[in-house]
Amino acid sequence: MKPTSKRPTGSPSKSLSRKMTRRSVTNVVMLTLTGACAFLTVSVMFYILGYLAWHGASALSWNFFTKLPAPVNVPGGGMANAIVGSAKLLLLASCIGVPVGILAGIYLSEFAGHTIASILRFTVDLLNGVPSIVIGIFAYTVIVLPMHTFSTLAGGFALGIMMIPISVRSTEEYLRAVPSSLREASLALGAARWTTITRVVVPAAFRGILTGVMLALARVAGETAPLIFTAFGNNSWSQGWSQPTASLPFMIYTYAVSPYDDWHRQAWAAGLVLVALVLLVNVITRLALARKMPLSR
Amino acid sequence: MASVGTVHSGNNVNVRSEQSVDTPQRFSLPPKPSVTADGSLRFKISGLKVFYGPKEVLHGIDINISSKVVTALIGPSGCGKSTFLRSLNRMTETVRHARVEGDILLDGEDIADMDVVKLRRRVGMVFQRPNPFPKSIFDNVAYGLRINGHHGSLSESVEHSLRRAALWDEVKDQLHKSAYTLSGGQQQRLCIARALAVDPEVLLLDEPCSALDPVTTAKIEELLFQLKPSCTIVIVTHNMQQAARASDFTAFLLEGKLIEYQPTPKLFTTPSDPRTEAYITGRFG
Amino acid sequence: MTTTDLAAPTGSGFAGAWRRLRNFDLGDSVAHGVTLLAGAGIFVLVGVLLAELWLDSRLARHEFGWKFLVTSVWDPIAQHFGALPFLYGTLVTSLLALLIAIPLGLGTAIFLVELVPAWLSDWLAFIIDLLAAVPSVVYGLLGIFVLVPIIRSSVEPFLHSTLGSLPLFQGPAYGFGFLAAGVILGIMVVPFIVSVSREVLLAVPQEQREAALSLGATQWEAASQVVVPYARSGIFGSIFLALARALGETMAVTMVIGNDPTIHTSLFASGYSIAAVIANEFAEATSTLYIHVLIELGLILFGLTFVLNALARLLILATVRRGTVHP
Asked: What CATH number does domain B38-132+199-280 carry, 3.20.20.150, 3.40.50.11690, 1.10.10.970, 3.40.50.300?
């Protein structure tokens, strides 16, 4: 789409050609500016990765992954408990977010009538728009208060709630993308509706649903705000599910705002690990979706 | 109204005898061995009306479909032949706001009273565009068997169905491969094999060859001919030559009404209704 | 054709009931029930959430009423609370973020749609989407150690020297404050503007561009005078979406804004946002009223983001639909 350049017919007057030139100069300038915007935006990504690698790589050590946090100015501390804590939180979050999300997605795609579907979708969008700190408040009132303690359970609950809208939306989207001709073929063979759903439709949409779940996990893995007054934080191992627990994002926060250099370095390292994982999941899921088996028509 | 040709037992519908020398041949009918209808009725349909929402799509169809023959439904686009076909295995119910009135009796039993799942095992369907599942060739054919609780060897039944669909030789070494690696014609034959796997008494085909080339079409027509003794076949087609070639009885539908229903040679050479004649001579449609 | 919705067998009275009985499939009903339960569960969850927010802020609402929104006192010891500093901080940082993100994001989107071949556009859009996946706390980390020093040593002195006459750019340069928070928020919401704007720009029918070009317009003129206006509802939608996102951002803001519950006119000064104050003070809230106040702030925040998100969705839908419906 090359810009149509000026082709004056005959001999143009001077002011006309000057106007044309000014327009084409404007054109080039503005288009270059948009290119600069794009360049700037894309380069931020590389800046982020660059800084994380620069500051964080040096602090990545065996200690980092295996040791508990050490007191200030004592070297050799690590974030082992935070890594495990994050894993536990994500496990709990999946137990809540994945089943509810997928089942509700199936309901929206396969069973719901038009009005109910609209209402439910609206509600899901509502939930998606709730700021993560407010979800933290909710988990606090519903779980922390009755239990009289901060806990992994509360944190996992908060994260699980955040996973639900993402899972529902992507499940519904991929189920809808399955051609109705496949459902018809199954029904015509004498399959009941639930058989059709479980043996034809969901398997056909499986890859998409899985990536939706993984993206949801990647999203909540980095969340800090809902954990501040639910999982709270812990300098040591957290036993079971009803004790406060450390988590990677929360450690980053605590260490970053502290005045200690050693902790700052560890915060960078943790940031590097977190971003690497999150980006890895995003890239893998995107590639996996791109190579999806082509469904005939 | 509709002229319904009923079949009485013992009639030999012999292709060659009917054409009197004074009736000009409109179609060159390939020589076929004489067909004997076994006389029993498979489907007895009376007063069939189908509504999509407020719109009446089929206006009271009365027709009897015979057993172990090939019955073709022809008519211009939108005349309701697909809708009619789908009502025979209650696939109309998958359309929102669809309503069916009238009686459809399968071997004397009202299909509306039957368990729809059992009905669809007895009356199978092949669709216009091949729609194999995103599974392997084997799993596609085995699907119907698995969900219906199959006794005996699965692989034997799968092989049997693939042979009946004349696909076995082409796929026997690649049963584990995805169905989508097959060509369009092979996929359609796979869909036929899949439908045959549950051993239906009736096979409904909705323009099965419209997306296929002539060579594959001929193969499938030959297939139908071979299936006939074990299976009643009802085929919707917009291709009149195909109807003339492959069917024993033909029904002509127009705007949701049954106009004429005759043994095929008669309908194509001496149609009773002027509208039928206009359609088959290509004046419209 | 379509849905997989099985209509019930027809027929009234006894015959109809008998038919429905014969056609009853336990598996279908169980599947329907279980998935319905999940959907209902979400419904209940949101209901309880709203109820909790409402109920657990009642002390604050009864105590302060509407004045809460315009009072700027924040004295936990004397139990005098006002939301104004936080509303102010949230507003200022979000506006600043938009000021940065809109030109940057829109420019990028135009570049990606009008000037770049599809395959490259997809790749670049993918990288930009990855920016949205970076956790807020990591942005905060970069904010503290990378952005704030730059602002303190270069940007603020520069602004002070050139525009220092404006009250916006006065005061000592700490680095932390509204400016830093605004910039980091801006960077964080750019991907949203780019992604949605790109989508709506792609939805503009090609005929529009061709019409403009065939009349002799330059590419920029076609883009800025025809394509962007055509898609303007959707672009506004993307802005609202970005704003909603910015309002709710907690970690990055709280790490660089300075956490000072007073209103200052200068951008160099420290401030506070709604999300930041909740994050910092909720766990240490000493009285029930204190907690209720914070929860009321959460309710206000939720209300704001809800309205913005709803508007955004409507606007985006309007443009995409417009692009696919031919007059």
From this structure: 3.40.50.300
Instruction: Report DSSP state, residue C8.
Output: P
User: Distance between CA A116 and CA A110 in Å, rounded?
Assistant: 12
> Which homologous superfamily does the CATH classification assign to the domain defined by C83-324?
MetI-like (1.10.3720.10)
pLDDT digits (tens, 9 = 90+) for B130-139: 999 989 999 9
Q: Look at residues C79, C82, C90, C48 and name the one whose alpha carbon lies nearest to residue C285.
A: C79
User: Distance (Å, rounded) from C-alpha C262 to C-alpha C88?
Assistant: 9
DSSP labels, chain A? -PPPPP--SSS--HHHHHHHHHHHHHHHHHHHHHHHHHHHHHHHHHHHHHHHHHHHGGG--HHHHHSPPPPTT-TT---HHHHHHHHHHHHHHHHHHHHHHHHHHHIIIII--HHHHHHHHHHHHHHHHS-HHHHHHHHIIIIIHHHTS--HHHHHHHHHHHHHHHHHHHHHHHHHTS-HHHHHHHHHTT--HHHHIIIIIHHHHHHHHHHHHHHHHHHHHT--GGGTTTT---SS---SSSS----HHHHHHHHHTSS-HHHHHHHHHHHHHHHHHHHHHHHHHHHHHHTPPPPP-
* Interchain pair B132, A296: CB under 8 A: yes
Q: Is the pLDDT of residue B63 over 80?
A: yes
- The token duo for A174 is 């991929």
Q: Write the pLDDT tens digit of every residue in C135-186.
A: 999 999 999 999 999 998 888 888 888 888 888 888 888 889 999 999 999 9
Please check whether residue C230 is in contact with residue C203, taking contact to mean a CB–CB distance below 8 angstroms: no
Cβ distance C9 to B116 less than 8 Å, yes or no, reads: yes
Which segments of chain C are extended strands (E)? Answer: 74-75, 80-81
Contact B99, C8 (CB under 8 A): no
d(CA C82, CA B91): 64
Domains of chain A from N-terminus onward: 85-247 (1.10.3720.10)
ipTM, 2 dp: 0.87
- Provide the residue ranges of all domains of chain C, joining segments of one domain with +: 83-324
Select from C261, C217, C321, C235 the least CA-distant residue to C74: C261
Task: Say yes or no: B198 contacts chain A, CB-CB below 8 A.
Answer: yes
Q: Which secondary-structure segment (H or E) carries C193?
A: helix C178-203
Nearest CA in chain C to B98: C7
Structure tokens at A257: 């705002």
Contact (CB, 8 A) for A131 and C275: yes
Give the pTM.
0.82
d(CA A291, CA C213): 37
CA angle, residues A80, A81, A85, in degrees to nearest 5: 120
**Count of pairs with CB atoms under 8 A, one residue in B, one in C:** 38
Residue A183: its chain B contacts at CB < 8 A? 94
